[in-house]
Amino acid sequence: MSHSLLSFYSLSSILALLPLFIFILIKRKQSKPKLNLPPGNMGWPFLGETIAYLNPYSATTIGEFMEQHIARYGTIYKSKLFGEPAIVSADAGLNRFILQNEGKLFECSYPRSIGGILGKWSMLVLVGDMHRDMRVISLNFLSHARLRTHLLKEVEKHTLLVLNSWNQSSTFSAQDEAKKFTFNLMARHIMSMDPGDIETDQLKKEYVTFMKGVVSAPLNFPGTAYRKALKSRSTILKFIEGKMEDRVKRIQEGNESLEEDDLLNWVLKHSNLSTEQILDLILSLLFAGHETSSVAIALAIYFLPGSPQAIQQLREEHREIARAKKEAGEVELTWDDYKKMEFTHCLAVSNIICDDDDVMPFKVFTTEQHYGYSLITQDYVVKVVNETLRLGNVVRFLHRKAVKDVNYKGYDIPSGWKVLPVIAAVHLDPSLFDQPQHFNPWRWQVLRFQIINGHVENNGNSRGSCPSKSITNNNFLPFGGGPRLCAGSELAKLEMAVFIHHLILNYHWELADTDQPFAYPFVDFPKGLPIRVQPHSLLPN
Prior knowledge:
Layout: H1 3-31, H2 50-53, E1 57-58, H3 63-73, E2 76-81, E3 84-89, H4 92-100, E4 106-108, H5 112-118, H6 128-141, H7 144-163, E5 171-173, H8 174-191, H9 198-214, H10 225-252, H11 263-270, H12 275-303, H13 308-328, H14 335-340, H15 342-345, E6 362-366, H16 384-392, E7 400-402, E8 406-408, E9 411-413, E10 418-421, H17 423-427, E11 446-452, E12 455-457, H18 489-506, E13 507-511, E14 518-519, E15 523-524, E16 530-535
Parallel strand pairs: 3-10
Antiparallel strand pairs: 1-14, 2-3, 4-7, 5-16, 6-11, 7-10, 8-9, 11-12, 13-16, 14-15
Helix pairs in contact: 7-8, 7-18, 8-12, 9-10, 10-12, 12-16, 12-18, 13-18
């Protein structure tokens, strides 16, 4: 049979089967249910809307991009961001749903460039069992007991080192001073490094270069911030590895120092992590423990001068703590002192709680939730730390990915799509927080009553005491939530409270130049938050 005849038969067979193929394709398309995606705009090919999404804006707002999209599409919308189709959520309920279903319906999914610079074993990018194991290590070392017995003392020591270096009537960058405090604290906490030592200063210099690359565009070309950061990362890891080798040798020789009760020692003794895993863990904790806490402290320094009443109430609270300590003959802060800082950091309460579900003898209300009861008395449990974190939003949004097809309130979220819960949008939502762009620590105050025989009466607690049961506003998620709740959240609050305690007692400060926090999306002060300080003492004579 000739080749031409064979070709003719082959073509005839294909043409005969073509209607069948078309029929099958049509049937498949018809059988596949149409997705009900949220409304939105996918933007340009590949880039999508990423450039507009990341355009800098005032950190006490959600930015023009989010405002326009929410006004046009609602609090849940689709887009294309970071090179992927995405669902963006400014919806409090969906954000909680995403965080609560971590590892089930969603998983962490940061851009590859973040993993490239922080390391593949960084807690920020790990998922599943490995993330859980790394997080357990961090939680063990940041346990409540350790906060009380070790870290409180170190936090106060490093606070005073920074504050005592301030000269009378001097002007400087408050942001830089906050970063100095948190970096020195974490270097000591992780590797027993002392502030002012040559090796500490060298490490800090490399770390600054590293951080500039973390928050820059991931352009791996000579001269770019990202390329310089990769080089600094290599230098930092070599330094940490040298510390590890020296520590292992001394542990084997039984020549340990009692002062080296740090994370490095703990990991070497109590984990089976490889060298690479330990290096990435230490680098990621140095990043997380230094950057976010320093920004939060700078934000508190920025917000407080705009609220003289808040500063006055802080002075009263901390002066009373100092007076009681002097009478007791004590110098260093204790855990009991920390618990007395109720206006500064006491746990926020926003939901109703009851001691007994049947009798309901005790209720707690927020000032915005009166529930029809006559308001008899107020118990102030307000929180400067909470309000700073709510308004400043150190962490603006999170990177997640749907690992299964999800339907939420009628909207489909396809498996494989990026999902971005925008924490800042919820914290600045006027339907959830009254006048959300106003710094108002009193929004966290609590109204307490005891209900006896149908009558509302004062429950007898003294003004200023913390609630006997602590529950948090479930729309307030400054540290994330679910299985990936920030392991260092309690340390961060301790750092802020202790720093504010000594700042309030020893200094008056004012902004020396016009500056404000911007979201890039990381929060930063363009001018470094220049302040002018004047020493004063509220300490009793």
